[in-house]
Amino acid sequence: MSTHELDPEFLTRLREIFGAERLLTDPAECWVYGQDNSRHLSPPAAVALAVTEQEVVELVRECRSRSISLTVRGRGTGTAGGAVPYAGGVVLSLERMDRILSTDPANRVMVVEAGVLNQTAQDAAAEHGFFWPPDPTSAAFCTIGGNAAVNAAGPRALKYGTTRDNVLGLKAVTGAGESIQTGVYTTKGVVGYDLTRLLIGSEGTLAIITELTLKLAPLPEAIRTLRVAYQNISHAAEAVSAVMGQATIPRSLEFMDARAISMAREYAGADLPEGAGAMLMIEVDGPLAGLDAAVEAVSRAASNDGLVDLRQAQTAEEAAQLWAARKALSPALRTVAPNKLNEDVVVPVSRIPNLIDGLETISRRYGITIVNFGHAGNGNIHVNLLYDSQDPEQQEHARPCLDAVFDLVLSLGGTLSGEHGIGREKRDYINREIDPETLDLMRRIRHEFDPAGILNPGKIFPEANGEDRS
Q: From the centroid of its chain, how far is CA 291?
């Protein structure tokens, strides 16, 4: 059956499960659920708004029995097209499964449904003196389930880890319509295979995560912010290696290249030092009693012959001003060109200069502006290719330019995605990084979880023989 056309009997069954008010079939209502922050658009034939795990189970079983594709989504903030449905089908939105089920400060644990917003969880944890470490830029809008789907991170991952490091266990529904529970409630446990970590980052292709047990961390007593400018990227990278080589691990260590600095100054009016070819934003947190010494140690490590300026915020207001330049970047990018390819590549920290130099060469070769910033402490750089699709030459060169970027990253021992996922944006490149035998094993694992291949088809794996929905 074409998934663009759902038969009346199937829709009748879905109305029995969800009720008419939580099953959308009007094209105008479904339209918004056919896109995410990747700007890809493929409207589904229907949208189901679940409120219980049992509804998810029943929907999966109905879709499997009719070979209808099913794509799960949170709030659609992903940039890799992972939440964009395949050829119509059904979208399952978990936005209404948004309850915090329990908070257990004594054990540093919070249990949430997948549709809880990241910021909502942070606020609830803060009431008890804790926080959940993953802090993507879209924290106010993205869901915990979505964070788990792509193993989202953010600046704090440098010290506290990614989503995968901060989920103890979860509940999910496989593509066979079976409810499973993985992981533990404790901070240690080694009974059976670690399916929790397997499902996190699987982008909804193995199972639909419905509930998560989060590992909380105590809120730091104090945070200090440093902004450090350098003559060039080599000096900045030298500082990154030095900072990461001493005992005090920063809470975050962010990077901006020369073009990003210029853009933040020119388009957003950011107060940045002249003559800076690269800049680091560093946060240090911990007990107030030892924080001065920690900041001093980091400052010493960050200082080298290429230092242009080192500024430390003394108040929360000053810290916000120092971060203003970094936050001004995304709006500034929109003023340069109407189209953007936003990639989140990772290279070994010591090879960041090679990456930036190589990207500058690629930019000149293809006539595409490239702006770089991101999480320098773990080598996760956001590479932004800016172009105008109405310019025939730029439109023709954009994808070959991206192709060259990925070749460069892999030649430096890097990886194609640090936190955005593969989705549909990078699926045709994944076999450059992963060998055929390993990819085949991944496909077989996927088949075990989802025998009919209905869950989020067309994602992660490259097409084979013209079409691959596995």
A: 30
φ, ψ (nearest 5 deg) of residue 318: -65, -35
For residue 208, the cross-strand partners are 173
Among left, alpha and beta (phi > 0; psi -120 to 50; other), residue 88 is: left
> For 82-116, how does the pLDDT look when each residue is reduced to its tens digit (9 = 90+)?
999 988 899 999 999 999 999 999 999 999 999 99
pLDDT 10s digits, 380-414: 999 999 999 999 999 999 999 999 999 999 999 99
Between the alpha carbon of residue 251 and those of residues 12, 218, 316, the distances in Å are 52, 13, 16
Residues 70-84: tens digit of each pLDDT = 999 999 999 899 999
| First vs last C-alpha separation in the chain | 17
For residue 237, which of 171, 143, 304 has the smallest C-alpha distance?
304
Determine what percent of the chain is predicted with pLDDT higher than 70: 97
Rounded Cα distance between 350 and 370, Å, is 21
List the structure tokens of 297.
């140690």
Residue showing tokens 């699926």: 427
HEC string for the chain:
CCCCCCCHHHHHHHHHHHCHHHEECCHHHHHHHHECCCCCECCCCEEEECCCHHHHHHHHHHHHHHCCCEEEECCCCCCCCCCCCCCCCEEEECCCCCCEEEEEHHHCEEEEECCCEHHHHHHHHHCCCEECCCCCCCCCCCEHHHHHHHCCCCCCHHHHCCHHHHEEEEEEEECCCCEEEEECCCCCCCCCCCHHHHHCCCCCCCEEEEEEEEECEECCCEEEEEEEEECCHHHHHHHHHHHHCCCCCCCEEEEEEHHHHHHHHHHHCCCCCCCCCEEEEEEEEECHHHHHHHHHHHHHHHCCCCEEEEEECCCHHHHHHHHHHHHHHHHHHHHHCCEEEEEEEECCHHHHHHHHHHHHHHHHHHCCEEEEEEEHHHCEEEEEEEECCCCHHHHHHHHHHHHHHHHHHHHCCCECCCCCCCCCCCCCCHHHHCCHHHHHHHHHHHHHHCCCCCECCCCCCCCCCCCCCC
CA distance 354 to 412: 8
Q: Which amino acid is at 213?
A: T
Q: Return the closest-CA partner of residue 311 out of 224, 240, 246.
A: 224
Phi/psi-derived region of residue 109, left when phi > 0, alpha when psi is between -120 and 50, beta in every other case = beta
Contact (CB, 8 A) for 311 and 252: no
- What is the pTM assigned to this prediction? 0.93
